[in-house]
From TrEMBL:
It comes from the Bacteria. It comes from Hansschlegelia beijingensis. The lineage of its organism: Bacteria, Pseudomonadati, Pseudomonadota, Alphaproteobacteria, Hyphomicrobiales. Gene3D superfamilies: Periplasmic binding protein-like II. The keyword Signal applies. Pfam families: SBP_bac_3. Residues 32-262 form the Solute-binding protein family 3/N-terminal domain. This is Lysine-arginine-ornithine-binding protein. Keywords: Signal.
Length: 264
């Protein structure tokens, strides 16, 4: 890890570079941005009692809007519809814990990373499972959220080894089937599953097995905001605002609201 003085210098240079691009983006006069999130992926994005979006993704998006001095409107959109609706122009940006992958880069652009999260397996405590290798999970029923890097990993690595893969519209549905004994294990983001395991009545059934999974070929380069490729000016604005909230401590305060450790 670099000394603090060097880290400050590097961060300062990143902010300066981003600000140059940001100034160009502001010249395009983006004054209002429509932002979509799923609303079903706590603690990153969920709907509150008033049916309003909240969570880590949403708080980061709000901070970006404040830093960029633009107004933002938030829209809830189911996971599978996020990229199609973005491309159709129903909103401008997606802040929904979307991993930056080569496959997704073919159709959308991404901001700079705003957090990193490896994946892991969570299994029923009574299953006897400890090893999460494809060989150890052959013949088992494994679950994941549909349309995610985790789903692709199960289908391309575990299914050929003999596992049965079941996909779900939301992470909550997958977790419910795991706790009810209808799945042997779930593959999901570590930062989502660890809080779930600590919730009495939710994750009491289960435990982490194996080790963290972070192969960039599948799990990408971290999580970023998705945008249309033609909106390079908006990407520059968002990257500049992300650099600013990292530099001024806003990001750190948001992080601390949800996690007792840095997730950047």
């Amino acid at each position: 890890m670099a000394p603090k003085s060097l880290r400050r210098l590097l961060l300062g240079l990143a902010v300066a570079a981003a600000t140059l691009s940001w100034d160009d983006a502001q010249a395009k006069q983006w004054t209002r941005i429509r932002i979509a999130s799923e609303g079903a992926y706590p603690p990153f994005n969920m709907l509150n009692a008033d049916n309003q979006l909240e969570g880590f993704d949403v708080d980061v998006a709000r901070a970006v809007c404040a830093a960029a001095k633009v107004s933002c409107e938030f829209v809830a959109q189911d996971w599978e519809g996020l990229i199609p609706a973005l491309l159709a122009g129903k909103f401008d940006v997606v802040f929904a814990s979307m991993s930056i992958t080569a496959e997704r880069r073919k159709v959308v652009a991404f901001s700079e990373r705003y957090y990193a999260s490896p994946a892991l397996f969570v299994a029923d405590k009574t299953s006897g499972l400890m090893d999460s290798s494809p060989r150890a999970l052959a013949g088992r029923t494994l679950g994941a959220k549909s349309g995610t890097v985790n789903a692709r990993y199960l289908e391309e690595v575990y299914a050929p080894a003999g596992a049965k893969v079941k996909l779900y519209a939301t992470q909550e549905e997958a977790n419910l089937d795991l706790s009810a004994g209808r799945l042997d294990a779930v593959l999901a983001d570590k930062l989502v599953m660890l809080p779930w395991l600590k919730n009495a009545g939710d994750g009491d059934c289960c435990q982490v097995i194996g080790h963290d999974l972070a192969d960039p070929a599948y799990f990408g380069e971290g999580v970023g905001a998705a945008l249309r490729k033609q909106d390079a000016d908006l990407k520059a604005m968002i990257d500049g605002a992300l650099a600013q909230i990292r530099a001024d401590g806003t990001y750190e305060r948001i992080n601390a609201r949800y996690f007792p450790f840095s997730i950047y």
